[in-house]
Amino acid sequence: MKKNLITIIIGAVLVIIFALLLFVFQVRQSEVAVVTTFGKPVRNITEPGAYFKWPWPVQNVYKFDKRVQNFEDKFRQTLTSDSVLLIATVYTGWEISDAKEFYPKFLGSVPAAQRALESILSNAQQAVIAKHNLSDFVNSDPQQLKFDEIEGEIKAAVQSQLSTNNYGIKLDFLGFKKIELPESVTATVFTRMTAERQQIISQLQNAGEAEASNIRSAADRLAAGVTNNARADAVRIEGEGLAASISALKIYQQNPELAAYLLRLDALKLSLNKQSTLIFDERTPPFDVFSHLPTNSSSSNP
Amino acid sequence: MERNVQKNAVVNLLAAVLIFIAAFVVTIFANSLAGEAASVFLGLGALVAFASWFQMRLEENERLEKLELDELTREKGGSALFDAKESEVFPARRSREQFEKFFVPGFAVLLFLLQASGAFLLWRWIGKTTNGIVDARAMPSLSLFAIFALLLFLLGRFSVTIARLGDFRLLRPSASFLLAGAYVCAFTALGIAGVEGKILQADLWMARALCILLGLMAAEMLLTLLLEIYRPRIKGKITRPLYESRVVGLLAQPESLFTTAAQTLDYQFGFNVSQTWFFQLLQKNLAYLILAQLAVLFLSTCVVFVDAGEQAVLEHFGKPVDTLTAGAHLKLPWPIDKIYRYRTEQIQTIYVGYTPETGKDEQNVILWTVAHNQEQNFLVANRATATVQDENTDTNDTLKAPPVSLITVSIPVQFQITNVMDWAYQNGDATNLLTDLATREVVHFLAGVDLNDLLSHARLDAAQTLQERIQADADEYKLGAKILFVGLQDVHPPTTVAGDYEKVVGAEQTKLATILNAHAYAISNTAMSAAQAFTTTNVADATREELEISAYARAALFTNQIPAFEAAPSVYKQRAYFKAFADATANSRKYILLVTNTQDVVIFNLEDTIANDMLNVNVPNE
């Protein structure tokens, strides 16, 4: 009897659990639920709590995450209006706005909804980018950037499509996650960046040489000035010396003949040096003493 | 009694077949991996139930045949009837023997093949498939598997009891399979419940466990078949059906394990351990103990311990009602109240522009020219190039280098969860969204800043600006996170062109060196010219002094020479002449012609001759 009572209690507990599983369901704060009766959506539950339902197969409950879903699109190559190839990817935040519409359109599948969103997004993204120049995306003047406007245009285009066809989802936000260049263009950018660096290197080298040349020439000019001034001073000083020596010339005037003779002798001494070759005959004093030497002919004469 | 057993066997067979079909349909409906394994198990159970029922019918026919023969023997006595061959007299017995001799071993081999291939193929399928339970169908499938478990449990328990009480060996295999099938269905339901409770791997784990069970059954069947070859055949001895699985029996009646353990203990200790009061108490109250354990497990869900650095959101029937901080808390049992934990104190990091390479040797030197992570390139404005490009806007080549540059940035963004409610309920994947927002802000910022500015003076402000922008985004999208730090320490040109940037630095140094050399030359030149000027003026001073002094000295000399001249004018002049002549010509080459014949022509070769030793110098060949 005791064993039967335990069995009955366990059985009853199991039955209650199964009944609860079949008749009651919970919806979390982060969820939205659609209740279908024989496949037809009849209730949309957005508030959290425990709810009653008829067991399967009469009623089914489909629960979805009602929080903002993050979806990141693929990288897509697009041509801007100024013919620059860009590769861009956008991220979006979307949420289920109407679960009753969302469920039948995507069979409750979030991946299916994201696939549909991806197509719409791709179309809008390419169309909007093609209307803008590269300078709207990248510009050294931040005031010229149109990032926010472009994102707004894409978002408006996507939201318009979603609303028109009543997908049951809405786009909360959209932004560019990455903007890149195709590999071939990236290579050309690298080449150009390298050339820029080479240009700067050349500028630096030439600027260095030019400045060095300027410094050298300035130094030369300064040195020449100093030297020339010194030479001028030297001439002036020598002139002063000469002027001072002129007063002594009056002494020579006491006997000009003797002075002239002595000056000639000084000039003679100054004009002869080691390399001079002089040819004298016997009449030139003091060599004239040779003329009075006895010769063989004169000595043999009586 | 025999009739009732047969009815029981038929009911078992029908139940096994129907529940197998139902379980298979539910499995397809829910896409459950554990359900697939459970269906294979239930299918094997249906085959075993059929075999045991068929064998039971053959034995019953044999028994009826024997009864009829006994009746005829009593009525007619010895007759020609017994002269016939035995096979003609006992066709039912003959059929039963043929069945046991050929069909049963063949059926056992078939079972082994099904079990082994089922285990192998299912294991492989589970490893490959990416299918998961369809969310919306989880709850109905769970309920149905629970119902299957309940039905199989009731029927299996009843059959097992009948088989044990009446010692109906042929009822035992199907009864054990039904009871074990109940547990398998319960396990499957648990797996689905786990998935429903966000333990996504639960269904997979259950499927793996059931594959292992099938593998064990296959191994046991193989061993049984091998042993059957060497089993001694004793006429009249009732044998155990070859297709009856001991593994299934153990799973169906775990209490038999208790008995086996008791016998082992008795043997090991040398006295009846199983007769002690403790063992008896344990054996009698095992069910209560298990129930108490389950009750404690259930009640344990009423207590929550939140660790340091954590916050937990308490949900009551799915509605968040409180945020629990570190410490012990009471709550209503699962599934009424549930908690979700978040590490709010932990400083978490997301990475923008690079993916850290974990497991790679840490680099001690971080260079621009060596990629130190999986780095990404970002577009950045380039003022100089834009100016040049504006002058050449006619070109329309899509592959031309656009007026932008590329830069590599590695930016770690550290954050903390400050509002757990916002973090948990506003966005499906808040961390991912924060990464997207941070990346977007970095892309946006770089697109509007000049490359050279960023590499130099704008760098300091960039980190602060980015932190403010990312924080503003996080607040706008209600992430409930505080941005603590944005690191901009690793910003440099891509490694492909980084070497050229280093060359620019080298060129700047070369330029400085050239200028410094020029300055050195200027200093030297200035100093030398000053020295030369000083020398020149000094020489001039000396010359002046010489001029003055010598002029006065000469004048003084002349003053003294006048009296001498006046005293002997010709002699003085002669003396002065000869003295000056001797001094002046002392070092000169002199030729003195003493000619007597004035008609002679004397020719002098006055060419300079090169010294003899200079002609003997050997000039080395090139």
Describe the structure.
The complex is a heterodimer of chains A (302) and B (622). In chain A, α3 crosses α4. Chain A has three domains: 64 residues, no CATH class; 113 residues, Tetrahydropterin Synthase, Chain A (2-Layer Sandwich), CATH 3.30.479.30; 47 residues. The model of chain A has no long low-confidence stretch (mean pLDDT 85). In chain A, 28% of the residues are buried. Chain A contains eight helices and ten strands. Helix content of chain A is 52%, strand content 22%. In chain B, strands 6, 9, 10, 11 and 12 form a five-stranded antiparallel beta sheet that branches. About 2% of the residues of chain B have low confidence. In chain B, α1 packs antiparallel against α5 and α4 runs antiparallel to α7. The chains are: A alpha+beta (302), B alpha+beta (622). Chains A and B meet through α1, β1, β5, β6 and β8 of A and α5, α11, β9, α12 and β10 of B.
Short précis:
Chain A is of the alpha+beta class and 302 residues long.
